[in-house]
Amino acid sequence: MRTVAVDGQPAGGVDAVAALRELLDHVGPDLARNVFTHSSWSSKRSESYERLAFLGDSVLSLAITSYLYPNLDAERFGAGELTKVRAQTVSGRACRVVAEQLGVPERLTAAAPPAAVAGVGALIATERVLASICEAVIGACYLTFGYERTAVAVVSAFTAELDEALKRPLDFKSELQEQLARRGEVVSYEVIDEIGPPHERTFTVVALMGKEELGRGSGRSKKDAEQIAAELALESIAHHRKRAPHNV
What we know:
Strand order of the largest sheet: 3-4-5
CATH architecture of the largest domain: Orthogonal Bundle
Structural class: mainly alpha
CATH superfamily of the largest domain: Ribonuclease III domain
CATH topology of the largest domain: Ribonuclease iii, N-terminal Endonuclease Domain, Chain A
Distance between the termini: 41 Å
Largest sheet: 3 strands, antiparallel
Number of strands: 5
Helix content: 55-70%
C-alpha cells in the first residue's frame, strides 16, 4: 500500500498529524471557538462542537474510504473487509489517539471558561469527548480549506491507525466466540445503557455467557462497545486460566 505525501513528506512519519494541526491553527476564530466549546459551557448548543463533529465524522469516513478503495488489493479486500478496516481506522479509540496528538486536551483546557475549569479533567478523560472534538476539528478544516486539502491531512493523521487496522485487526468478538465454542458455550451481547443525544450517543454493552457477565464496554457505537466488552472478557478468561489452568 502506497502512502500519501504531505508537503513532500511521507504520511505516517515522525509527526503524521502536522498537516492537520497546521490546518487547525489557521481555522477562523469563530469556528475554532466552536471546536473547543463543550455544550455544557454555552446556553446555545449551536455554539458547541456537536454540529461540527457531525460534519467531520462524514468527512473522515469519506477521506479514509477514498484512500482505501484504490490502495488495497481488490482480491484481498472486498466490501466486508474494507468496512472492517475503515471502522477500526475511524473508531472512537482512533479519534481519541489523534485528538491527543493534536493537543486537544490542552486546547480544551485553555478554552474552558473559569466556571468550567474544575470539570475539564473529567471531559478530557472521556473517549467520547476527545473523539467528538477530533471530528469537529476535521469539520472545521473542511469548512475552511475544502475537502481535498483536509482529506490529505486526515489520511496522514490516521495513517498509524490504518496501519494498525491492517496489521492487527480488532475482532475480539470472533476470538471470544471461538474460545467459548471450544467449551460448548456461546456469547451474547446486551445493551444496558445509552447516554447522550442521538448524534453523540455512548452505549454500554455487556458480554454474557448465559447469565454470567464476562466483560463490559462502552463506545460511541454498539459495535465499538461490543468489541471492548469482548476484549475485556478475553482478558478475564486469560486471567482465570493463569490462576486455574485445569479448570478453564
